[in-house]
User: What shape does this take?
Amino acid sequence: MSNKRIRILIAKPGLDGHDRGAKVMAHALRDAGMEVIYSGLHQTVPSIVKMAIEEDVDVVGLSIMSGAHIPISKKIMELIKKEHLGNIIVVVGGVIPTKDIPILKEIGVTGVFPGGTPFEESIKFIKEHVRNY
Amino acid sequence: MGVARYIKDEKDRINDVILQSGIHIKPLYTEDDLKQIEFDYKKDLGNSGEYPFTRGIHKLGFRSREWTTRQYSGFGTPKETNERWKLLISQGQTGLNVAFDLPTQMGYDSDDPIAEGEVGRVGMAVDSLRDFEIAFKDIALDKIGSGLTINAVASIMVAMYQAVAEGYGFSKQQISATPQNDILKEIVGRGAWIFPVEPAVRLIGDVIEYTVKEMPRANPVSVCGYHIREAGATPAQEIAYAIQIANAYIDNVLERGYDIDSFVSRFSFNLDVFGNLWEQVAKFRAARKLWAKNIKERYGAKNDKSMFLRGMFGGGGGGLTKEEPENNIVRSAYYALAAALSGAQTMALCSYDEAYTIPTPHSALISLRTLQLLMDEVGLRDTVDPLAGSYFIETLTKQMEKKIVEEMAKIDKMGGMVKAVSSGYIQKEVARQAYEFEKGVQNAELIKIGVNKYTGGEEGKVELHEYSDESAIEQIKSLKELRKTRNNKDVTRTLKALEKATKDKVNIMPYLVDCCKAYATVGEMTGIFRDIFGEFVEPSIF
Assistant: This one.
């Protein structure tokens, strides 16, 4: 790993406005030395991808509470592929039933952190899986 | 549960207990404590039904009237929702608490591309009066009151509720709607906002003004400390922010030339029961007193009823865990106990599976039974404010009062809640505390059974409420059908009138009722507001 700081976009896709988890993770990742950009609420998949490009991030972290994690993840992975952003990894957190984790991984999501995942675990995972290092 | 910090010595004896609001609990309270806080029965408490109402707003408490049980429900299509409601009513539920899906809450029609994947997911999809006609079919709207859990477009839903009731032969004077209609807490803690703060608050004021004149049984605003607490605020902040939010709405209505006593008695509160039991009880008692004082001293109200803090105390979702989910049934029962000991008028509990999903009929029924069991089997209706006079509770109530007053003063110093929220101050404060709390849970300074202490129990089995695209497809089909079959001339005419009223800054409610009756859609009505008001820009701090 180089000394470059990991840049991560914490994004809230869709109409759900519960941002406690997203903001808590943003704080934890910032404390862990990462550069954190928070998208704000009510983002669409294209607006998130655009922000990821503009901010030149290594990681996109989606926070989803509404239950729509599978369709949203599908859409973002398709767009990332289309835009040839293979260096960006996508992780998903929020209210995610265990049975959906393998489905998300199959779609191309690198890591899934359901609510209550220890900060250290998510941080370690991101550091290990980030691609540009 | 795990919401106070316990400082222990090496022998596991507790040296100190620090509540979330920052109050230290002592090992023993005696009459000296009451002397120290200059406890004065008449001034601090008074009998129940007497100012400052610390002991409760009704003289006989639960003896004269049991608390209303109002489980949050509604999902999928209006037809599915109607079936669920009838089930809950047949099981003894006495009020409805309507959950709307996110597109509806955000003012989008079900066929809007932005709604894809969300139609009917976390609540009922409502596009037009047609949906309300199906959802409220065969429900006695003169007997069953309805909480409408919606904020940014609460005005539209209240208008639609009037329209559906009138269609079914109930007058607007007979029906009881309780829209949440609290946009400031959305901006602080729940995120379902659309418009910038000032026009958003105007819409809240329009609903209050209209219902006070036209719908005497409505409770036009349910001020939610709840979501702010769940987003990370302390119990003291929860109450302070809720009172200051209510004050922002009061100020808006007063500017229209109304007398405080003509409308404020219709306000109600939605407050959280999650937390340390004693802190919760003290919080609710202090809240009742401070609300009464606020209305009397700040606004000069004369009528006792104006000073009543009427509330739904419930929920507690923040305390529930994904691990060993059946433990949540037990947790919720204790939260309900806190609400009952605090004299709640209405209660609703989060169901044990809500850390995963929206409740199944099975889990919603367990919550309802929990409330009924407390009411009829345990003795909570026996006497009013049973903890009053306790050295500990009275001391704590006084300390909570002081903390709440301090937090309120900070908001006043910033120029009121509209300013404090527009600048992002409150949101930042709340997010910072949420992070501190989460760190506390992760390093086990804050105990959660089954999560960071006594772990390794059986994995619970949760039956998931499955979302089906079929409901969404059906909903979109019927919306498209409606657009073809309704009288589109009426729609255009009523929407034009709404647009003019919105621009002219007259009360938009009668115009919304006309739009609803013409079967204009939620998206069409909200679209008018979006064009005129624009959208809120979130301060990008966390």
Q: What stands out?
A: Chain A touches chain B at residues 12, 14-20, 23-24, 26-28, 38, 40-42, 44, 66-68, 71-72, 95, 97, 114-116, 118-120 (CB under 8 Å). The longest helix of chain A spans residues 69-82. The mean pLDDT of chain A is 93. Helices of chain A lie at 20-31, 45-54, 69-82, 101-107, 119-129.
